[in-house]
Amino acid sequence: MVDHKKKYSQFFTDPALAEYMVKEVLHEGAKTFLDPAVGMGIFTKYAAALTDAEITACEIDPGMAERFREDNRYPVRVITGDYLEQDFPEKFDCIVCNPPYSKFQVIEKRDRYRENFRERYSVNIGGYSNLCVYFLVKSLSELNRRGRCCYIMPYEFLNTGYGREIKEYLLRSKMLVRIIKLNCNIKVFDDAVTTSCILLLENENHDEVEFVTADSVEELTGNSFSNVMKYRYSELEPKRKWLSYFGDAGSSHYDNIVKVSAFGKVSRGIATGANEFFALSLPEIQTRGLSEDACMPCIIKTPDIKQCVITDPLIRELVESNRKMFLFDGTKARTEGDFAYIRYGEEQGYHMRYLTRNRKPWYTIENKAAAPILISVFNRDKIKVVRNEAGIKNLTAFHGLYLKDADEDFTNIFFCYLITPLAQELLHRSRRECGEGLDMFEPGDLTRADMLDLRLISEADREEIRTIYRSIRAGKKPGDIEKLDGLFRRYIK
After folding, report:
1. Which one, of 84, 91, 72, 13, lies nearest residue 22 by Cα?
2. Range of the domain at 422
3. Where are the alpha helices (DSSP H) in 312-442?
4. 8 in any annotated domain
5. What is the pLDDT of residues 166-177, one digit of tens each?
């Protein structure tokens, strides 16, 4: 059942949200209604109850389509097949959809879809685009004049690189009326963790777009929003992350701001493709008789690092506690134990994983230098930043910040800045919300994030920062972070 739902990217919509979306598209004179991915029929159920419009439903999953026919007795035309390859003879007055959310890697017909959309809709959809983007573009092409469309989608597409093309398309169309970002506390789907947004569009030439944040279902269904930002189309930039247009982000404007890229670059950690094989504890190394040369120290998981400064004594402590703190590099195999472990990996099929089968030899480890500052990929509330004094490498649970021509002293100052509320606020603007309070950062998000220009810090303040860093390294005293924050804010206007 789980695999089946995953195959068709099925996540079923909350009834309160579904009713709201249907009501948003219904208008006087509406005669036709379409749901491009009907599923259980939550949208068509409300449409049948609220309007006499002729209802059309499309469903790619034959089993789901049959179940829909059995469970729903109201008049509806059901089309079984791929919506993206359906040609409708008519256009529609109302379209409501919870489209499938499939990442680009699993879209089997991706190349065919992209070519088709370039030819039919003059839209160059990025190769990394989620399947839901294709659904949205096709639906907009099927709206009657003054027809309305309402989609619920993961907010991610408005805040990612691949979203640029769809944002350009929305701005060209002038159909976008409102984007409602749903607070992460609102449970949109029963079995999916994602932050979602609702798009309301109308086939008219609109002058402005509303960016709305809904903190509760009651606020949404009552259309009583406390946070509404309005922008003219000419003010919206497709290259920009649209999270900044909502009132809860990007509302504070500072001087003396540069990008993180002015000082360095953020890169992901080492990807093994099979952590079960490559990540090892000291007892496992000893039991298998692996050589010291083939096993390098490495941070495997973020929960293992509770301190904000990684030192050699801390690494020894973690190793002695039997945590997985080593990475096996088969290219450095020297002993019979090493070669036996490689054979064991092949017997278990680790050499045929997606990443390993594309490496030669498969047991090679990426050659990445240890990063002096680590930033966790997933975060709740506070972004985890770690100073890597020990020079230990890390897997993908952390991103690594590599500074350009920075000595140890400046690295410590940079780290002290990153742990302040000021820095966290600025970095947080580049987040990708995953839902239920969980945020994610891609390396590019952090590299392009705003930060204070640390070149402005005076020598006297640098000395004070050095003193506080030594305190933090020794165990962090109460007030250390507040002192740093106040110090850095002196340079913000």
Report:
1. 13
2. 264-269+368-489
3. 312-320, 336-347, 408-418, 421-428
4. yes
5. 899 999 999 999
